[in-house]
Each structure stands twice: as C-alpha cells, then as structure tokens.
Amino acid sequence: MTVAAFRGHSANLVGVPTGLLASAAFNDHPLPLHISGVHESHARLFDLLNLAGSHAEAAKIFQDYMDETFGLLQQNHEAAVRRFRASYLRLLKGWGYDSNSREGAVLKGWVESRFGLFPTFHKTALTRFASATWSRYVEEKMSSRFHNNGIYAQLDLLYEFCQGALAHWFRPGQHHVRLYRGVNDFSEASLLHGQPHPRSGPAMVRMNNVVSFTAHRSVACEFGDTILETLVPTAKILFFNDLLPHHALKGEAEYLVIGGDYRVTVNYL
After folding, report:
1. Backbone φ, ψ for residue 248 (5° rounding)
2. Between helices 43-51 and 55-70, what is the axis angle to 10°?
3. Is the pTM of this model over 0.85?
C-alpha cells in the first residue's frame, strides 16, 4: 500500500477532515484550527496570555509556563541526574540542523498524530508503508531520547501559542502569509500538476507534512535554484522567526508550516 494513496489518517485532533485539510482548497479558503483539549487542559496559561499587554510579555509568559510545566530548566541544576528531558526548543534546534534528523522525525510524527497528515519524505521518499524506509521513520519518531517529557503536548502548546500570536499581534484579520522555499529538485515537494519540469509559472505540489519556508525570497535563493512562492494559511503555521525571543532558527526568517497540496508559483534563478 502506498503512502500517496492515502494522504493521512481518517481522524485527527483538529476537527477538519484530513482530506480537506491536505487539499489546496483548504489553503484557498482556510478554516481556524485548534488542537482538541489544549486550551481546556492549560486554561491557566491562556488566561495569562489574554492579559498580556504585548507580544514580548506573552512570549515570556509562554516560555516561563513551559519551563515550569515540563521541567525544562531542571536538567541545568541537577547534575547528578543525567536523564534527558525532551524539549520543543531542542526539536527546533535539531530541525534547523537537519529536517531529516530524529528531531525532524518527531516533528513529522506530531503532525501525523494531530493533523492526520502522513509525511512524504524522511531521508528519502516515503512511498510504501511496508518498507524499510517507513519502518526507519517510525523508529526515529518514537525514539525515547526525544519522545519523552510530554513532547507532543509541548508542541500542541507551541502551535496554539503561535496561532494566538498571529491572530492578536502579528497578522490580525489576515488569513494568509506569502512565503518562499528554495529547492534544487522536486524530491521533497512532489510535483502534482503542470509541466513535468516547469520553467516558471503555476504548479501544484505536495509538500511534506511539515516543511520550512522563509518570508524572504533572497533567503530562499540560498537553498536552491528553484523558488516556490505560495500563500500559506496562517492556520497551518506552527512556528515563525519572531514568535519567541530565543531559539535556534533565528537569521533565516523561517516558518514551520503544516504541509499538504499547495498551489505555487515556480521561478528558476
């Protein structure tokens, strides 16, 4: 059975059918998305965020809450205890070094779990479930080194905080952000419609279930000689450069985006 035959699970935690969520039609007319139970389970955090007078204050509230709730600072003060605590910041750092790392697999696994979308690429194209490449992805996404300390719950909170920050501080009233991605080929972003290798112009591509974009075309040019330009729904943004004051993805105006089928404009340098 091929991964392409099924874009995702029949159920997810955001209340929108996975087939619709994965489609270009959703991107054209996006709906608000929320992960079930997150606001209810962490009501204290969201009550505090509602009282914040600026995004800087909200970001401090968020990071303090994450440190306290998941013990993210304890490992710095307990030298005798060598247990590794998985952290959303460590995952972002690992992703920044290599999206096909074990940290990248955990992020892809979280998207699969919450949004129902299967990854299409991890080290190589994921084409069949009954394959060594799919088994390796599953092994890495469940790695005990990174898959502990409620890491999916941490990512749930990161997503919901990101959505609130976009709605209240960064993109109020807006539903899309124009973003760019530089590629050298279509191995990770599979070309669905259009010319086999379009010189330029519109095309439809299937993105991996989580993928990096940048807000600056000049930055995208550093990552490939083909630039994919698209309008990304704010509802599909997990993380962006200005969301937190300290993180490992600074400098590239990076956005982490939930994937699916995207209408893009292809431009060759």
Report:
1. -90, 0
2. 160
3. yes
